[in-house]
């Protein structure tokens, strides 16, 4: 981190129109500290991206915004003897460092690993509920009215695991705030060195996670927690995932619990949000996320879908009765019930101060 600050102070005078501001070196140091110095988790995530990339330009496109930031990271890794760059190709020189990171797997690689571990054809199950791969080991019935539970598709769950492995650098504890989608089991199967904790109010969810984890020797712990009554869970967490109730109060409560549980080194948050009961209150949600120091890294529209599952709740019966007057029942029941967006956010533990610095519309500082 000192390297990053040193480089910024040295290089800032070359940024567009910054030399015209005639600023003191201490001003550059303050600007770097408040606005540009990455959290340790964000820095580690960038390093992971470099050592798991085949070509340098992939890193520029996905993790940086200009050549300055790109150069700082690459030069640091070269100076430390971690990588070497030949043309566009990156070669890792320190395998011990590369192995300390969680794997960065594609959706296809995740599917292949699940097939290898579970002995099933995943491709035929993608539109099914995410629990289906484990149905021979345990049974589970979703309780829609009591706990607002509905299963997401296996395809959606695999996409979420792909995003978690894309951003999360280390195998430090990862938190699932509620897990009736059983993301913990899928993540533990493809990243066995990850330490995972599931907190949930539903005893059956925890029991199923424990049973399957035991059968498959997975590194998953569970804890019964009511997030409406508890502020956080103890531990060093560098990320969390949650699929909260799709209304403002529920989203805020689940996200706040996850953020409160993150370490002071920063972290990544993966939150599934659907507009069932939010509407224009999205403005309030954006204000809440900003107050919690959450920066949106990626927003994947419609990433999470819910395949049709028969429930006993009154709402589903009524809306299906209306929809099936327009579209044949046999078609409706092969489609999904609703969709959600996936928010990938970076947590900044210390809120930056607003500095009073001279600037112009065209000075890039």
What do you see in this structure?
With 365 residues, this protein is of the alpha/beta class. The protein has 2 domains: 2-98, Orthogonal Bundle (Arc Repressor Mutant, subunit A), CATH 1.10.10; 107-347, Rossmann fold (3-Layer(aba) Sandwich). The chain is built from 15 helices and 9 strands. The protein has helices at 2-11, 25-36, 40-51, 56-63, 67-79, 95-98, 107-118, 144-147, 154-167, 183-190, 203-216, 248-260, 282-291, 314-323, 329-332, and strands spanning 83-86, 89-92, 173-177, 196-200, 220-224, 237-242, 267-273, 294-307, 336-347. It has a 7-stranded mixed beta sheet with strand order 5-4-3-6-7-9-8. α1 crosses α2 (25-36) and α4 crosses α5 (67-79). The model has no long low-confidence stretch (mean pLDDT 91).
Helical proportion, percent range: 40-55%
Largest sheet: 7 strands, mixed
Uncertain residue segments:
none
Total DSSP E strands? 9
Domain tally: 2
**Number of alpha- plus pi-helical segments:** 15
What do the pLDDT scores average to?
91
Q: At CATH's second level, what is the architecture of the largest domain?
A: 3-Layer(aba) Sandwich
Order of SSEs: HHHHHEEHHHHEHEHEEHEHEHHE
Classified in CATH, the superfamily of the largest domain is Vaccinia Virus protein VP39
CATH class of the largest domain: Alpha Beta
State the end-to-end distance. 19 Å
What spatial order of strands do you see in the largest sheet?
Answer: 5-4-3-6-7-9-8
| CATH topology type of the largest domain | Rossmann fold
Quick one: overall form? globular
- What proportion strand? 15-25%
Integer-rounded radius of gyration: 23 Å
Find the structural class using helix and strand composition.
alpha/beta
């Amino acid at each position: 981190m000192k390297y990053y600050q040193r480089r910024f102070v040295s290089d800032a005078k070359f940024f567009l129109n910054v030399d015209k501001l005639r600023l003191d070196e201490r001003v550059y140091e303050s600007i770097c500290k408040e606005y540009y110095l990455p959290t340790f988790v964000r820095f580690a995530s960038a390093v992971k991206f470099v050592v798991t990339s085949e070509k340098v330009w992939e890193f520029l496109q996905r993790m940086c915004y200009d050549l300055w930031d790109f150069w700082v990271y690459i030069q640091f890794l070269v100076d430390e003897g971690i990588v070497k760059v030949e043309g566009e190709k990156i070669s890792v020189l320190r395998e011990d460092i590369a192995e300390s990171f969680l794997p960065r797997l594609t959706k296809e690689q995740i599917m292949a690993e699940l097939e290898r571990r579970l002995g099933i054809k995943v491709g035929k199950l993608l539109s099914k509920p995410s629990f289906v791969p484990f149905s021979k080991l345990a049974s589970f019935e979703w309780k829609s009215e009591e706990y607002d539970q509905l299963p997401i598709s296996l395809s959606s769950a695999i996409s979420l695991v792909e995003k978690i492995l894309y951003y999360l650098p280390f195998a430090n504890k990862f938190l699932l705030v509620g897990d009736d989608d059983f993301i913990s089991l899928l993540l533990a199967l493809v990243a066995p060195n990850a330490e995972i904790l599931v907190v949930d109010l539903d005893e059956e969810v925890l029991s199923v996670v424990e049973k399957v984890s035991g059968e498959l020797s997975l590194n998953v712990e569970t804890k019964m927690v009511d997030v409406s009554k508890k502020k956080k869970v103890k531990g060093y967490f560098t990320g969390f995932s949650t699929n909260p109730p799709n209304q403002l109060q529920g989203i805020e409560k689940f996200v706040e619990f996850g953020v409160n549980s993150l370490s002071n080194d920063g972290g990544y948050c993966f939150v599934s949000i659907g507009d069932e009961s939010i509407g224009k209150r999205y403005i309030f949600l954006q204000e809440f996320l900003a107050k919690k120091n959450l920066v949106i890294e990626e927003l994947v529209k419609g990433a999470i879908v819910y395949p049709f599952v028969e429930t006993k709740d009154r709402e589903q019966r009524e809306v299906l009765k209306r929809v099936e007057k327009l579209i044949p029942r046999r078609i409706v029941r092969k489609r999904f019930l609703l969709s959600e967006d996936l928010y990938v956010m970076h947590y900044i533990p210390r809120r930056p101060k607003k500095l009073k610095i001279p600037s112009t519309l065209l000075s890039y500082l």
